Amino acid sequence: MQHILSSWFVQGMVKATSDMWLKGWDERNGGNISLRLLPEDIAPYQKDFYAEPRHEVLSQSMPQLANHYFIVTGSGKFFRNVQLNPAENLVVLQVNGDGTGYRILWGLNKGGLPTSELAAHFQSHIVRMGVSAGKDRVIMHCHATNLIALSYVLELKNEVFTRELWEGSTECLVVFPDGVGIVPWMVPGTDGIGVCTAEQMQHHSLVLWPFHGIFGTGPTLDDAFGLIDTAEKSAEIMVKVRSMGGKKQTISSEELVALGKRFGVTPMASAVNL
User: Fold this and answer.
1) What is the top-level taxon of the source organism (predicted)?
2) What's the pLDDT at 125?
3) SS3 for 156?
4) Judging by beta carbons within 10 Å of its beta carbon (0-12, 13-18, 19+), is residue 137 exposed, middle or buried?
5) What is the largest CA-CA distance in the chain?
6) What is the pLDDT of residue 190?
7) For the chain, which ranges sit under pLDDT 70?
8) Same domain (yes/no): 148, 107
9) Residue 102 DSSP class
10) How many domains, the chain?
11) Residue 32 pairs with which residues in a beta bridge?
12) Does residue 117 carry a catalytic annotation?
């Protein structure tokens, strides 16, 4: 029998956290990831679960997630260390039957809790489950350097930020035609910022926390990582363009419309019409 350490979801989290740290997006204990698991994902590994799981209370009831399983990064854990000791830095948990708390089934073997942004993750999971008919299973948060840098110089409006990234790289409109949502600066780790993030997740697969970082979602860890990576690459280009004196030419609205038609996506209208 295989051990849970060899499961696709533990190995996937090891790869994602390692890749994100190598990108420079997750210094110290910055960033967090949650992946919603299906019963069939965890069924082969129940022998590895704690005999007496620890129970923790959620800051607010989330009955929509009752009995759902997740693998999540731990609070205060360094992404660079996940590959060295997944059982210390990751946690598999199950929300209880009424959504008021959760049981720690595996991981955090030296103590601790899931990410302090668990409420924000759960609120966004609920929204994306509805928006994607259950396909989106990942919420990924990191401190992507150039996206943060742009939040200091661009007007903090969804359509303005989206248009800048679309113009930064041709593939961006195809990868995130729904654009970028932005929440006002708020204290992280609170229910309030989770509510605002989830509201933006109703319409956008990328949500920016100005001066802090980015949230991305998708069906798989690769999809969420690739989404953030694409946006961050464009942000890096636009940071360099601004440092060289700004744009002399760029992609036009007409060209963005043509791009959407070619790849069969419907771009965010307010960003096209700027």
Assistant:
1) Bacteria
2) 98
3) coil
4) buried
5) 64
6) 87
7) 1
8) no
9) E
10) 2
11) 141
12) yes
Query: Do the annotations mark residue 204 as ligand-binding?
Result: no
Q: Is residue 180 part of a domain?
A: yes
pLDDT tens digits, 12-42: 999 999 999 999 999 999 999 999 999 999 9
Q: How many CB atoms lie within 10 A of CB 98?
A: 11
Whether residue 160 contacts residue 274, with contact meaning beta carbons closer than 8 Å, is answered with: yes
Cite the DSSP H helix spans in 39-117: 39-42, 79-82, 86-89
Q: Are residues 65 and 3 in the same domain?
A: yes
The reply, when asked if residue 212 is annotated as ligand binding, is yes
Q: 95, exposed or middle or buried, with CB in 10 Å at 0-12, 13-18, 19+? A: buried
pLDDT digits (tens, 9 = 90+) for 59-72: 899 999 999 999 99
pTM of the entire predicted model:
0.96
- The one catalytic residue in 117, 164, 167, 236 is 117
- Helices (DSSP H) in the chain: which residue ranges? 8-22, 39-42, 79-82, 86-89, 118-131, 145-150, 158-168, 171-175, 191-201, 221-243, 253-263, 269-272
Angle between helices 221-243 and 158-168 (to 10 degrees): 80
**Same domain? 109 vs 165:** no
Query: Domain boundary residue among 115, 150, 178?
Result: 115
Domain containing residue 80: 1-115
Distance of alpha carbon 247 from alpha carbon 230, whole angstroms = 20
58 and 99 Cβ atoms separated by less than 8 Å:
yes
For residue 99, give the CATH number of its domain: 3.40.225.10
